[in-house]
Amino acid sequence: MKLNSLFLMVAALIIVQACTTSQGNNEKQLAKDVIPVTVKPLTKEKLNSTIQSSGVFTTDDETFLSFKTGGVIDKIFVKEGDAIKKDQILARLNLTEISAQVSQAKLAFEKAKRDYKRVENLYKDSVATLEQYQNAKTGMQVAQQQMDAANFNLSYSEIKALSDGFILRKIANEGQVITSGSAVFQTNGASENKWKVKVGVSDREWALINIGDVAEVSTDATPNLVHEAFVSRKSEATDGMGGAFNIELTLKNKSENLASGLFAKVNITTSKAQRGWRIPYTALLDGDAQTGYVFTTNDSKTVQKTIVSIGRITKDEVIIVSGLDDKQLLIISGSAYLKDGSSIKVIQ
Q1: How far apart are CA 168 and CA 81, in angstroms?
Q2: Which of 92, 248, 260, 312 meets the CB 3.0–4.6 Å disulfide criterion with 233?
């Protein structure tokens, strides 16, 4: 009997010890699952929007020049990069065929004119009918129009500069057979310093930009100079090639040492007000140019994985434009160890 009581007491002690050990392990595991983090209060504020982008310098009068008629290029008088003057002859077709067409049209007109004079005299003598007289007159008028068209084509067998500027590209060469309207040169009027910058922006940035918004433009060609500019045009559709919206900036002052195609860095200050949140880089996870996610908490005990929309990324911070309206605290450190619903302990 005493032996049985001893066994019961030992068993009870073992059970109590096991329960105590299990409770301690659970408390240690619970403490281990609580992740220490630091937080930042979220405050929505009015933001001064500065859009950073890039583009290329161009002018507002870039033009592709071509011949009115097709033929063989006889002579090209300029090369790429040459300065040109208004009405300067840049290229000429071989005139053999065109001159022959002009001669034929001239001979046809002279014949039609003689026929008309002869029928007119016969009509006055009541020998030719009114219909014959009218047909001869119409034939002479048609021949005159054909001669005028041939002379017009002859005058456009030369390419002349439309304004002072530069040859940007020479697309064809001497001796080449070229069709009507095919480009031979690309020119601009850069000598007048009417410089512009064409910039591609996203749909969200496009919505913030207004005509007349001021901008600063810089380029590595003039590293110590910042060019003042303003938004002169907004495209109403996306670029078919890249899918971006095009913005055109016009430089306010004349600028030297620029060339068409130079790379430009642009800062556009928008006049439209924008509200959002400023957050540090460390708080944003898996972000791209449009979206990302952050961890937030409202009770300082558990976290929520929150998808946010990115307005822009600056050198110091990330601007968030939506996704945080009902959130109070942002996790700014310890995020790498978190997942949605993780338990946290806020530390200072």
Answers
A1: 6
A2: 248
Instruction: Return the HEC string of 20-46.
Output: HHHHHHHHHHHHHHCEEEEEEECCCEE
Q: Give dist(CA 213, CA 235) in Å, integer.
A: 15
d(CA 74, CA 184): 13
High-pLDDT (> 70) share of the chain, %: 87
Which candidate, 251, 61, 54, 255, places its Cα nearest to that of 168? 61
Neighbours of 225 (CB within 10 A): 13
What's the rounded mean pLDDT across residues 159-177? 88
Does residue 2 register a pLDDT over 60?
no
Residue 75 sits at φ, ψ, to 5 deg, of -150, 135
CB distance 134 to 48 below 8 Å: no
H or E element at residue 236:
strand 227-238
The per-residue DSSP string of 281-335 comes to: GGG-BS--SSEEEEEEESSSSB-EEEEEEEEEE-SS-EEEEES-TT--EEEEESG
Cα-Cα-Cα-Cα dihedral of 173, 171, 157, 145, to 10°?
Answer: 140
Q: Which of 207 and 30 is assigned the larger pLDDT? A: 207
- Single-letter amino acid code for the residue at 69: T
**pLDDT band, residue 242 (cuts 50/70/90):** low
89-101 residue pLDDT tens: 999 999 888 889 9
On whether the CB atoms of residues 139 and 116 are closer than 8 A, the answer is yes
Residue 150, both tokens: 């041939």
Mind listing the domains of the chain with CATH numbers? 35-46+275-346 (2.40.420.20), 52-60+194-269 (2.40.30.170), 66-93+158-193 (2.40.50.100), 96-156 (1.10.287.470)
